[in-house]
Design goal:
About 45% of the residues lie in helices and about 30% in strands. The protein is an alpha+beta fold and about 350 residues long.
Length: about 350
């Protein structure tokens, strides 16, 4: 009877030992399976999984977790810096493109010509009277003969009457003279005016320059043409008792959609030595000379230096960097979640072992 009971007790101990071994083996197998489920996409088990399976100490695992959390914070900070730099670069690229688009660069070229188109010289003498108008060449003006008296002239003159563009009630009378054209031979026009008496404090004659005298001849409405010229061109004056020498230069400006013509001038004033008798000096004399300054026509072109393709290429690179940074942030967050789950699983495993 004693042998049977001993045999039965020994058999019960062996069965309990076998059940406990099976339970521990199945638990280890499940833990290993869970760790293998979170292995890398390339099929390589991470070092952390091997350490967990190998049963590393809790202090060692805690130090590794702190180190990984530190590197995680550093990577997130780098991501934020890269995102800020990419956003600033995109803003700067768009701002530079709009600035270049709104502020084109001027390109200046000089074209040499033999002759200019004859300009129109519009004179507003008022109470003054035109005494003579003659063409001369090579900067030579012959001495005056009987100044203050009418003389023969060879200029082409057209008289136009119109109402001003700014004061519609004021009627203006303009003497439009065909200007010089032969710049190589230094063609000039010499004009002489006389004014008997004036009630004004200052005596002067106003004049205006426009691009082509032929435009006035070809226009169907001369009054409207002169009104438009006065609206678009500047006015100048020359005083009595002096000879005003005006040297003209032509500037063409080509914009985005239209072209404009502008006259620039340099004037030199010389006093007239009046040698007439005292009885004739009551008539104030005006002298004006018009010629071209040089045979060069200045052309100004507005060039837009903004290149949309380069800006688009820069923006594509910036958006690609942002996309890569966003993908990096997504992978970082997924890695943090996986590490958090692994840490919780290890803690629960330790608690189960203690229990």
């Amino acid at each position: 009877m004693l042998r049977k009971e001993n045999s039965r007790s020994y058999q019960t101990f062996i069965d309990d030992h076998n059940d406990e071994s099976k339970t521990q083996s199945s638990g280890l197998y499940e833990d290993a399976t869970e760790d293998l489920e979170h292995e890398d996409p390339n099929g390589i088990v991470s070092q952390d999984t091997e350490d967990d399976i190998g049963g590393s100490s809790p202090s060692k695992r805690f130090s590794k977790a702190c180190l990984k959390n530190f590197f995680t914070v550093v990577l997130i900070f780098i991501y934020l810096v890269l995102t800020a730099v990419a956003a600033f670069l995109a803003y700067q690229t768009i701002s530079d493109f709009l600035n270049k688009l709104n502020h084109p660069v001027m390109s200046v070229t000089y074209n040499e010509v033999d002759k200019f188109p004859p300009p129109g010289i519009a004179l507003y003498p008022g109470k003054a009277r035109l005494l003579s108008c003659r063409h001369h060449y090579h900067d030579y003006i012959p001495p005056l003969v009987d100044p203050g008296k009418p003389q023969e002239g060879d200029c082409l003159i057209k008289e136009v009457t119109y109402f001003g563009p700014f004061t519609n009630e004021t009627e203006k009378k303009a003497l439009v003279v065909r200007g010089p054209s032969d710049v190589r031979n230094k063609e000039l026009i010499f004009m002489q005016f006389s004014q008997n008496e004036t009630e004004e404090d200052f005596s002067a004659i106003t004049y205006m320059l426009f691009a082509k005298f032929s435009d006035l001849i070809d226009s169907t409405n001369n009054s409207k043409f002169m009104r438009d010229c006065e609206r678009n061109y500047s006015m100048w004056t020359f005083s009595g008792g002096f000879r005003t020498w005006v040297k003209m230069s032509l500037v063409k400006t080509s914009g985005k959609s239209n072209e404009a013509v502008e006259f620039r001038q340099e004037s030199a004033v010389v006093k007239f030595n009046d040698k007439r008798p005292e009885s004739e000096k009551t008539n104030e004399l005006f002298f004006a000379v018009f010629e071209w300054r040089d045979p060069y026509m200045q052309e100004i072109r507005l060039i837009v230096t903004a290149n949309p393709w380069s800006s688009v290429a820069i923006l594509c690179g910036v958006f690609m960097a942002l996309f890569k940074a966003a993908n990096f942030a997504k992978l970082t967050v997924r890695w943090i979640i996986r590490m958090r789950k692994r840490l919780l699983r290890n803690k629960s495993r330790e608690l189960n072992q203690v229990n």
